Amino acid sequence: MDKIRIIGGNPLTGSIPIGGAKNAALPLMAACLLTADTLSLSNLPRLADVSTMARLLADFGVEIASAGDAERVLNLTAGSANGTTAAYDLVRKMRASVLVLGPLLARYGRARVSLPGGCAIGTRPVDLHLRALAELGADIEIDKGYIEARAPNGLKGADIVFPVVTVGGTENLLMAAVLAEGETSLTNAAREPEVVDLAHCLVAMGAEIEGIGSDTLRIKGVAALGGAAYDVVPDRIEAGTYAVAAAVTGGDVELAGARLELMMALAGSLEKAGVSVSETKAGIRVSRNTGPLQGIDVMTEPFPGFPTDMQAQLMVLMAIAAGASMITETIFENRFMHVPELGRMGADINVHGSSAIVRGVAELTGAQVMATDLRASVSLVLAGLAAKGETIVNRVYHLDRGYERLEEKLAACGAVIERLSG
Ligand code: UD1
To answer: What's the pTM value of the predicted model, to 2 decimals?
Structure first.
């Protein structure tokens, strides 16, 4: 298994290109199932999860053609389905596979999707997806570990209220409702930029959706959707991760292609901590060439609040900031798996229920570490960049799910980082 070796201490300087958002790319790819025409997606990131989604779609008979630019542009054509089963092996690898449920059901009236299990960060049920699809008239059963969904007479519009904000649930329901008969409303819908991206793409395919970007979406079902060409939104979490990398190393980095308006909560927290964040022509500039980091308090929330996918990375900044910080995780119940690993590097962090109290230390020290999920793993890379001495991050395959050419991008800005194959 590959490892990443880092010698910490170098301030990052230079420009880092930000790719398309993984969490937008996956639902956008699933949306190709809604039409017999070609959906052409550009600015796709080259990540293991994107390949997994492509494999899953190919299983359904979707034709996938790379339209140049090193697989960043894919033409997806779901002419006619020759399968509607998402098998355990792929769903187990990537929970976002469950996003095929809504479009398969809407277009073909049936879907069989392996029920995702829990994962490293929490139990992560899909009960709200299933309950809402049932409200659209789907008949849903769980059989031998699979969600068996049927709507032989098609889906019918309904007024759906989500009791908690769910990103995947909102996406699945959007993709089901666009082809349902009549009108659907989604109340307490997720407003994440990736949900907005999906809604805009669906509109480009011919869907009728009002309220995009708000927490109430109104969808008027249409008989069929057509093809479209759509450019994936830049990855605010990749950009945010490199922003923290610049901050914790005392560097000065431009995040080329990043969009500040998608990252206001993080930018606000960084500024409070003493980091300068500004918009440039090419993207965002993040610098901390002078002054120490200050402790801050942060709570994760649905967008536009502070994203849970940035919680582990921000904790590294808190670990070396002056004074005490508190971070409260309100989205997932078990998302502090990085805490003991950061502790091995000298961080002083105590977890009390859903909050972590972080007392800043003068310096982290390199160590052998590993993590069990994507964002926790990258937080250990950030800690390694800030730490004194050598850090080895094990289980690198988590990083490859969400960060394209991570070590190359960091090395180009002066980090001492390399991948050790093994
Ligand atoms: C998506 C993102 C993930 C991010 C998360 C929250 C993708 C591929 N993944 O995950 O990176 O961390 O949003 O921003 O886009 N819940 C239920 N029942 C459900 C659905 C969700 O109880 O049926 C709960 C979850 O357990 C969690 C909360 O709702 O506690 C939010 O989850 P959700 O927004 O659905 O996350 P995902 O879509 O899985």
So the answer is: 0.97
